[in-house]
Amino acid sequence: MSAMRRWLPITLVLAFSFPATAVSQEGETAPGTAAAQETEAPQTVEDDRSALTDPAEADLDARAAEVAGGLRCPVCRNQSILESNADLSREMQRVVRERLAAGETPEEVEAYFVSRYGEWILLKPQARGINLVVYALPVIVLLLGFLLARNRLRKWASAGAVETSAGATGSGSIGVEDEEWLRDALRES
Amino acid sequence: MKKKQLRWLLPLVALPILWLLYWGMGRDTYVLPSPMAGLEAPEFHLVGFDGDTLSLADLRGRVVILNFWASWCIPCRTEHPVLVQTERTWDDSEVVLLGVVYQDSRANAERFLAQYGGEWTHVLDPSQRTAIDYGVYGVPETFFIGRDGHISHKKVGPVTWDLVRYQVDSLLAVPVSSANTGSVGGTP
User: Fold this and answer.
1) Could A87 and B103 be called an inter-chain contact, meaning their C-beta atoms sit closer than 8 Å?
2) Same domain, residue pair A94 and A180
3) Are residues A119 and A155 in the same domain?
4) Higher local confidence (pLDDT), B86 or A187
């Protein structure tokens, strides 16, 4: 499942980028495109190798991945720049890495992207202003539901108590219809 | 008892949902608000077709129209005649039109220009760093920059002649001395 999730975007990007390059490179010599791909591929391999050998590099990669995982890919829909294979996303990943390497905090890197792309670039909305509604509403609804359930249960409990003490005659706190329904329910249970 | 409770609960639940639907329908989800308007335009040093490096600082004191485009971009073809007209309308000493080639090769860009015309300057952004600096996520995107170097407006998608004229006229209307007071213009 997770393997599929990882490969699906890559396959899709590959599937869609081939016709696109074919169109955009129209008329250009084939060796040119091949050379461009060759120069790009070893770069990433080298990055990976240095990450494997140098613990500081690995740490930087991990921190960069954390920030990149929270930034939205501008040319995709609902995908982080970490997951995305789009050219722009990969360049943005490099920007994240360079800024972290230059001593910026993850918050500062995020702030940079927010200043350029708007808050939309963050996959997770910031917990302030109108956004607080998103965070508070589930808690409020849960609390209201709990209170409602508690009141109902209390009412039912007291109704049951009235019934057992006052017998089958309606005592006024509960309607005749409700009482009949309650009696049926109790019989069934 | 039960029904009385539901009577106030129903509008309480329904009204926000209806409002959300109404708000959502009147909104183009492809248009994202840009935080760049009113801010100082990020500096760049990009190489043009002639091999010379061009910086935004070189253009200070003139109104700059920064147009991110690519030869593979269909809406760029739509807006191209507007840009040709823009170039013809204002003198280079007043208004500079600058194309930034985005995710495209110089050869393709030059072929496009040979076909569709236009004599204004273009620079290449091979690393896409300038595009990221300007919060570009697609082409065409156009930034209107005042004499003071502040962005007055960002247009996502093809520009129209009305928009260009309105933006440039309002930027030119700002006296040179008070050009540092901040943002002008908006959407017409």
Assistant:
1) yes
2) no
3) no
4) B86
pLDDT at A26: 36
- Asked if A120 and A151 sit in the same domain, the reply is no
Q: Range of A147's domain?
A: 132-188
Domain B31-180 coded CATH 3.40.30.10:
yes
Give residue-wise pLDDT tens across range A98-109. Answer: 999 999 999 999
User: What's the whole-number mean pLDDT along residues A111-130?
Assistant: 85
Q: Residue written as tokens 């860009």?
A: B109
Q: Which long-range contacts (CB under 8 A, 24 or more apart) does B105-110 make?
A: B105/A25, B105/A28, B106/B49, B107/A28, B108/A24, B108/A25, B108/A26, B108/A28, B108/B70, B108/B71, B108/B72, B109/B49, B109/B70, B109/B71, B110/B49
Q: Do A91 and B129 touch (CB under 8 A)?
A: yes
Q: Is the distance from CB of B135 to CB of A116 less than 8 angstroms? A: yes
| A116 contact residues in B (CB cutoff 8 A) | 35-36, 42, 132-135
Is the Cβ pair A75, B138 closer than 8 Å? yes
| ipTM value | 0.76
Residue of A nearest to B42 (CA): A116
Q: Where are the domains of chain B?
A: 31-180
Q: Is the pLDDT of residue A1 over 60?
A: no
State whether B36 and A75 contact (CB < 8 Å).
no
- When CB atoms are compared, the residue of B32, B127, B132 closest to A118 is B32
**Identity of the residue in A25, A88, A118 whose CB atom sits nearest the CB atom of B128:** A88
Determine the 3-state secondary structure of B68 from DSSP: strand
Average pLDDT, chain A: 74
pLDDT by residue (tens digit) across A36-62? 444 444 445 445 555 566 777 888 888
Q: Which residue of B has its CA nearest to A73?
A: B137
- Count of structural domains, chain A: 2
Contacts A87 to B, Cβ<8 Å? 103, 128
